[in-house]
Amino acid sequence: MGRCAAPTEVYPAMNLTVVGCSGSFPSADSACSSYLLEADGFRLLIDMGNGALGELQRHVGLYDLDAVLLSHLHADHCIDMCGYFVARYYRHDGGPASAIPVYGPTGTERRLSIAYGDVPDEKCMSEVFDFRTLRPSSFRVGPFQVTADQVSHPVEAYGFRIECDGRVLAYSGDTGPCEPLVGLARGADLFLCEASFTLGKEDIPELHLNGREAGEAAAAAGVDRLVLTHIPPWTNPAVNLRDAQAAFPGPVELAKAGAVYEL
Length: 263
Ligand SMILES: [Zn+2]
Ligand SMILES: [Zn+2]
Fold this sequence. Notes:
By secondary structure, this protein is an alpha/beta fold. The protein has 8 helices and 14 strands. One zinc ion (ZN) binds at residues 23-24, 74, 76-77, 174, 230.
């Protein structure tokens, strides 16, 4: 903790691992949204969608997470928290694991308890998860300064700007085009942005971005690098990559399960 690195130093301030990046439902190649961000030995998991808990164990031990950040309560971003509750609450060795901070939208504890369906009592999830309600705000999580802002989606949903040692990761969560998204991503070193829709095919307002809209947001925010994520199995990623590249002059790539980015 407390390392004072200048942004120009060669070692990374943050390591980002793509645990899962499939949109809406898992693909044959990837679990749903989940990203592991590490700095100074602190491990923050951003979202835990379907299949993510299994994949996560390729990268860290079950009990190595220090905090969880949930962008919203659609199943493809949070449902594996039910399995993770089992792993922590019924831990074989040493009894229940201690509570780690879990940041989520209004009603996260209740939603996860209902989804689990058979909790021994209505408060037991809070024995292993210290639930904290997100608001548009900036707050500290371990070595990270996290800024959350509400984005454009049918449910209460947040995008995040996460800063550490002068480096910046921005994550869209699920969103249609909106100003807060550009604000969060302003000047980011890496912008992890959803591109669920196909340009010209799906046109539903305030739900998701297509490749071009992701590229436009990246260009408006002046980010260094754009990584497209949350592409559902029924969407052609090559089309979205091309559309994003047409709108954003910097480097663009597709997120892949297991990919690691040093920031
Ligand atoms: Zn989603
Ligand atoms: Zn969603």
